[in-house]
Specification:
Elements lengths: L4 H32 L3 H25 L5 H21 L3 H28 L6 H30 L1 H22 L11 H4 L6 H21 L2 H8 L4 H29 L2 H21 L3 H15 L3 H11 L4 H30 L3 H22 L10
Helix pairs in contact: 1-2, 1-4, 1-5, 1-6, 2-4, 2-14, 3-4, 3-6, 4-5, 4-14, 5-6, 5-10, 5-13, 8-13, 8-14, 8-15, 10-12, 10-13, 11-12, 11-15, 13-14
């Protein structure tokens, strides 16, 4: 099949909408704590609620909607995401906002893995890594634009207006997908129990474990970036938003480079390099990010390394299970948000117990463990003719 950038681009537009839905709470943390009168740790549980619902819902709803034509499924998922964000904008209090986040997560849980699988299907094998990276790049752009803009807007119009804008953009994404994407037949039906059989391969488990550790490390710091930067560089408000733009710019470049590196060198080398890079950057963050310039450099490098991880992981998962690419990508999406969900709990515990400066150091240990899991996963070889070694 020929590469079709406009089709892949609208899928990236959709992942931008669901990515902003998932990550925007990090930028809204000061507004949420002020308007809802809750602690930073309690506000961060809005990330946890979204992420856990996503992690549980991704394989479940993938099974329920397995026979749906893919374009229809993608449009419906974005509409549900829009409804969840609209409910968040109208939520009268913390508990109802938590419930709205769960609804939003259901739409995101269906959209992201389906979009990645469709992009891979519509792309020639030699460019598959870049196509998946482009779709996943919508999540990166969410960190570049969605989260910082949400942070800036929340300071003047409140967090409710930000959720309303994300709802509107989700509907725009649904319209674009319906207009540009061709009808894509559903893959062969697979029962829910069968969806987990691909995870019996220890190499697949290793990649999923690396995803969990990488996301847990990244979001343990990113979710609480406002108190971290306040403690290191003494910055607040708009300056934090600007530094989030810098992080996102690094992430955009990292996502592109990660996809190209996977296409050229495979997954193992790039994964070890970026996990090592993340470990070093996080370990040095409290020492280097003591000025605005130092914080900008560290956040750019951190974003560059962090967002280079997922393209080679997805490349490896597709390589290991070509016949079940949608299944393993769905499991990887669950692993991403399991890590994000745990980050609210782990990060909150570290913040309360040791303060914000301890967060990057704990995260560095987690990324080092992620590198070890990658190495162990490659050593564990399973002889299966259908799987690529």
């Amino acid at each position: 099949m020929t590469f079709a950038p406009p089709r892949t681009a609208v899928l990236a537009l959709g992942t931008f909408a669901v990515g902003t839905s998932g990550y925007v709470v990090a930028g809204l943390l000061p507004a949420l704590t002020g308007e809802l009168a809750v602690s930073e740790t309690a506000a961060a549980q809005l990330v946890t609620a979204f992420a856990i619902a996503y992690a549980v819902g991704s394989p479940l709803f993938a099974a329920v909607t397995g026979r749906w034509e893919r374009r229809t499924l993608l449009v419906a998922a974005l509409v549900v995401t829009a409804i969840g964000n609209a409910l968040a904008a109208l939520a009268p209090g913390y508990v109802t906002l938590l419930l709205a986040r769960v609804v939003t997560a259901i739409g995101a849980a269906v959209f992201t893995p389906a979009a990645s699988a469709v992009a891979a299907e519509l792309t020639s094998p030699e460019r598959r890594g870049r196509a998946v990276a482009l779709v996943f790049g919508g999540l990166t752009v969410a960190t570049i634009l969605g989260v910082p803009l949400g942070s800036v807007l929340s300071q003047s119009v409140g967090y409710q207006a930000v959720f309303a804008l994300v709802a509107a953009f989700s509907l725009l994404g649904a319209f674009a997908v319906r207009l540009v994407l061709p009808a894509v037949p559903a893959p062969p039906p697979v029962r829910l129990a069968e969806r987990f059989t691909v995870a019996k391969d220890p190499r697949v488990l290793a990649m999923l474990g690396a995803t969990v550790l990488g996301c847990l490390a990244a979001f343990s710091v990113y979710t609480f970036i406002s108190p971290v930067l306040s403690a290191t560089a003494g910055v607040h408000g708009t300056m934090v938003s600007l530094l989030l733009f810098v992080y996102g710019a690094g992430g955009a470049l990292g996502n592109v480079l990660g996809g190209r590196a996977a296409d050229r060198w495979g997954a193992r080398g790039p994964l070890l390099v970026v996990f090592g890079g993340i470990t070093v950057v996080l370990a040095l963050l409290p020492l280097v990010a003591t000025t605005v310039a130092g914080a900008a450099i560290v956040l750019f490098l951190w974003g560059l390394a962090t967002w280079s991880v997922n393209p080679p992981i997805q490349h490896r998962l597709i390589e290991l299970s070509k016949q079940n690419a949608g299944l393993v990508l769905s499991l990887n999406a669950s692993a991403i948000y399991l890590g994000v969900g745990l980050s609210g709990l782990v990060g909150g515990a570290v913040l309360n117990g040791g303060g914000p400066l301890l967060l990057p150091e704990v995260a560095a240990v987690l990324t080092a463990l992620g590198a070890a899991v990658v190495v162990a996963g490659w050593r564990n070889r399973v002889k299966r003719p259908a799987l690529a070694e």
